[in-house]
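step=encode ok
step=design start
structure_in=
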C-alpha cells in the first residue's frame, strides 16, 4: 500500500492574464492570417507552450531579421525595445505587440520620468528580455540597471536630487523592497512608481508560497529555467521555511528520491506554466503515494486584458 502524502496546491498558480493574452494573440494571429506566423523570442518562457504553438504553425525566431517581410510577426509578452516595431514598420511588416499591459505600464512610467528630465534606475536582472525591452524605450544612458543593494551603494547619479526608479514586473517582492529601501535611504527624494511595478500575479503567487512553505518539507515549482517569476518562487519557498524547494519543468524532471521522508509537498506553477503540467505532476504523485490534495487559496484573480485591435476579423 502506498504511503500517505499531503499535497498543498497553491491558488493562484500558473498562467496570469498577460501570459493568457500573449498565447491567445498567437492563436488569433494564426486564425486570422494562417500559418506561418512568426514570433520574435519565446512568446512566454515555457517550452511546453512554445511547442504547442509551433505545432499550430508559429515559427519562433530570435531577431526580426529572421522574419520574411510578407508574414505577420508577434512580439513577446516581455516587451521589446522601441527600435523593433520601428524596424518592422520600416519593412511594411504586419506586427502584433503581445507585450503584457503591466510591462507597458512600466515603459510609460519610464518615458514620463525621462520627459521630466529625471535619471532613471531600473531594478531588474541583466539580460532578461523584459529588462532589455524596458531599457530600449529610452536613449542609452537614460537608465541605469541595478540588481543588488551593493549596486545601490556603487551608483553615482548625475544629479542625486533628480532620480526616479522603476522595476521589472517579475522580481522577488521582498528582495525588491530591500533594494528600494536602500535607494530611498541614499536618495530620499527619488520618485517611486504611483503603483508598485511588480505585477499582481507575481505578488499573489509569492504570497501563496509564503503561506504554505512552513508546512511543506518539499516544495516544487513548475516552470522554466528561463522564467524569472518561477525562479523567484523557489527562492521564496526556501526563505519562508520549506526544507527544500526545486524548479521542475514537468513531472518528468522529478527525482522521486526527493520525497524520502516527505509527508507534505507544496506545489505551485510560475505565471507561464500551463495547468496541465500541474495536473500531470499530481497524477505522477498519485501513482506513487496515497495523496490528499489541499488547495490553499490566498487570492482570487479576475484580471483579463483585451486583445490588440489589429486581430479583429472583418
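sequence_out=
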Amino acid at each position: 500500500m502506498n504511503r500517505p502524502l499531503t499535497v498543498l496546491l497553491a491558488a493562484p498558480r500558473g498562467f496570469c492574464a498577460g501570459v493568457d493574452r500573449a498565447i491567445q494573440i498567437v492563436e488569433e494571429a494564426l486564425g486570422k492570417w494562417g500559418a506561418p506566423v512568426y514570433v520574435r523570442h519565446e512568446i512566454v518562457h515555457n517550452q511546453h507552450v512554445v511547442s504547442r504553438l509551433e505545432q499550430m504553425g508559429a515559427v519562433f525566431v530570435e531577431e526580426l531579421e529572421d522574419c520574411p517581410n510578407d508574414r505577420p510577426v508577434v512580439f513577446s509578452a516581455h516587451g521589446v525595445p522601441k527600435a523593433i516595431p520601428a524596424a518592422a514598420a520600416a519593412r511594411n511588416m504586419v506586427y502584433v505587440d503581445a507585450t503584457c499591459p503591466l510591462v507597458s505600464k512600466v515603459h510609460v512610467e519610464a518615458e514620463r520620468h525621462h520627459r521630466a528630465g529625471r535619471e532613471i534606475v531600473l531594478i531588474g536582472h541583466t539580460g532578461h528580455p523584459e529588462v532589455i525591452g524596458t531599457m530600449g524605450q529610452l536613449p542609452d544612458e537614460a537608465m541605469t540597471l541595478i540588481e543588488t543593494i551593493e549596486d545601490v551603494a556603487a551608483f553615482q547619479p548625475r544629479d542625486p536630487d533628480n532620480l526616479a526608479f522603476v522595476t521589472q514586473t517579475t522580481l522577488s517582492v521582498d528582495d525588491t523592497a530591500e533594494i528600494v529601501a536602500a535607494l530611498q535611504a541614499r536618495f530620499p527624494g527619488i520618485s517611486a512608481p504611483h503603483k508598485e511595478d511588480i505585477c499582481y500575479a507575481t505578488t499573489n503567487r509569492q504570497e501563496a508560497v509564503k503561506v504554505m512553505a512552513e508546512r511543506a518539507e518539499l516544495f516544487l515549482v513548475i516552470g522554466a529555467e528561463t522564467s524569472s517569476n518561477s525562479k523567484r518562487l523557489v527562492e521564496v519557498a526556501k526563505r519562508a521555511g520549506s526544507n527544500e524547494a526545486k524548479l521542475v519543468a514537468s513531472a518528468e524532471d522529478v527525482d522521486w528520491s526527493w520525497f524520502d521522508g516527505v509527508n507534505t509537498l507544496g506545489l505551485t506553477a510560475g505565471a507561464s506554466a500551463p495547468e496541465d503540467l500541474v495536473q500531470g505532476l499530481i497524477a505522477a504523485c498519485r501513482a506513487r503515494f496515497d495523496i490528499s490534495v489541499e488547495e490553499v487559496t490566498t487570492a482570487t484573480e479576475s484580471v483579463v486584458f483585451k486583445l490588440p485591435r489589429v486581430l479583429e476579423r472583418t
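step=design ok
step=annotate ok -> The radius of gyration is 21 Å.
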